[in-house]
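Protocol step 4 of 6: record predicted structures for both targets in the notebook before any analysis. Target 1:
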Amino acid sequence: MDFAFVLNFILQLGKAIIALFIIVDPFGNIPIFVGLTENVPDIQRKKIYNTAIIVGVILLLVFAFTGQGILTLFGVSFPSFYIAGGILLLIVSIRILITGSMHENYDSVESLGAVPIAIPLLVGPGAITTTILDLQIYDITITVLAVVSVLALTWIILRHINQIYKLLGKTGSLVIARVMALLIAAIAVQYILTGVTHFGNLATVAHFIVL
């Protein structure tokens, strides 16, 4: 196999994993996870986290395989989705910077694995948008591997969440969340610029055709 192809594949996969991991942000959400499960027995807590990861993987893979069809069904172009997705991620990043989290507080402890831990805490609008866009930027193989890798890393973090929380503390988790928010904002701006550039190129071509 061509070395350049393998290297390019690894680089693209790395970029996809990093981008999705930043959006999912398991470290920044640690205080929320701890708060939601603080009165739950250890054995039950592990089951909740396992359920969250399984549901999260299924949801993201469903959007990865059906996202293009959904956009086509509604007649939405990918440059338009780039811009809309970029704006959405920008709003998410601003909210995290201001409040320290992009999620509301939840009081119910029923079905915590699926709701709210899997969705919307792990698989929110940002993660869904990023997964659909990854499919267009890369391919289905890289997108699926990125989803599985990120959720596997998240599962490891959740399995050791108490030790990590003791190490980071609430303040450390909030700092990480805000740093991640800055990176999300940068990714959002890039998505918007990509979409705008596409429409700009179309406008230039149309101008020359008219002339």
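Target 2:
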Amino acid sequence: MSRRARYFMVWVLALTLVAATLASAAPEGQLTTAVHFTLAPTLFEPAETPGLVTPFMFLYALHDALVKPMPDKNMTPSLAESWSASPDGLVYEFVLRQGVRFHNGEPVTADDVKFSFERYRGISAQMLKERVAAIETPEARRIRFRLKQPWPDFISFYGTLATGAGWVVPRHYVEKVGEDGFKKAPVGAGPYRFVSFTPGVELVLEATESYWGKAPSVKRLVFKSMPDQVTRLAALKSGEVDLAYGINGELGEDVRRTPGLTLRPTPFSSTHWLLFADQWDASSPWHDKRVRLAAIYAVDRQAINEAQSLGFSQVTGSIIPRSFDYYWQPPVHPFDPAKAKQLLAEAGYPNGFEAGDLWCDAATSAVSEAIITYLQAVGIKTKLRPIERAGFMKEYQEKKLRNLIYGLSGIFGNAATRIEVFTASSGMYAYGAYADIDDLFRQQVAELDPQKREAILHRIQELIYDKAMYLPLMQLAALSAYGPRVAEPGLGLITDYPWVAPYEEVKLKAQ
């Protein structure tokens, strides 16, 4: 064989290997996920993220942020290749990646970033906008936020899952189709593009070739709404779905016993609690701290933990996750129904009282029912009022609920960000406030010394505990399950995050 012929054969072989590599890298297959709530368009919209981590289940697929939590670190440059803060804490600057585009082909620019921030109306929107003096776009790939005064938590709110303000949508497309049009057919810059949505039933996404980051290995993602967990487990066993969220209690044990199924607990920054919404109403029994303490002593939280999450969750005395900066460890009140009855008698309710309604997200109905049973046992009589997730959060935010509210939040941040949203008088979900807590909260906002700030935030948490503002339940470990077709589910890859992410890491087994 001549030298030329040998070179030709090597060249052909190289081309064949390259083609085979490219072919194997192309996304293939479909991952079908059963979700434990009703699908709604607001969940696909970065501008409307509530005080829940739920929407990020979809945002990580459809959209992208300047900076976001990833497996390597909490604030990973994404659409921004870099970011920096000025020494005086007044200016934050982001530099966008070169050549990044939305799914419709439009380039991602600083103008889109500015538009997305100004359009944002979700959790903590008012506070963010009140503290930003100006947004400058000196170049197409450079954006600058100027603050009115130094604010240590700006990047905690903007660059983590504390809010959706840093997630970017295409300005021209939104202005062209309008707000309703965008909800019906969202366009983002994430690894998957929108294909179709059947309200309350199913969302279909497909891998896009234009994503700037690692290419997904799964071609299609399908999310199916199955609020009933028995239905979700049946679908997982039959192969109708490959992954199911919200598999609790006895059904989790069923997963463990079923060949081919895998149970995956993912501890995350979701604390659950009851808010005594009427504690500021002098005519309500909940105005009396002894009544609130009675409710706290009445509930066996460890038993609920064992029943609902097989003991993987952590009983807590706070609404703030233990992993958050500035967290203060409170004592945890024990389960003591005798003490609960004693406190009720001291407060003038020896035979208990009618406590009205307990409002909850429908997905937490099982825990809420258990709480009602425990309260009933000491004489506190209440009725369950479950609402689908989107509606519940809307009514919670609009202060339409009363008596008892099942609160929860899995968004990122630190002790100050959680207090700001749920406890300070300016908070989106605050039904009332206390002057001493508000005064301290205003002090810590302007405090740049980390040790002094920590001392103030610890004192706030002590006051929250002393006033018995909440009945803390647990810091949740979400239980999910997946079937035999899944090689890598992508669960637990991001610290303190409960859902699959990043979707580029998900892998199916070769068929």
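Step 5 preliminary note on target 2. The chain has three domains: 25-61+190-261+483-511, 64-179, 268-477. Residues 25-61+190-261+483-511 form a domain with the D-Maltodextrin-Binding Protein; domain 2 fold (CATH 3.40.190.10).
Proceed to step 6 after PI sign-off.
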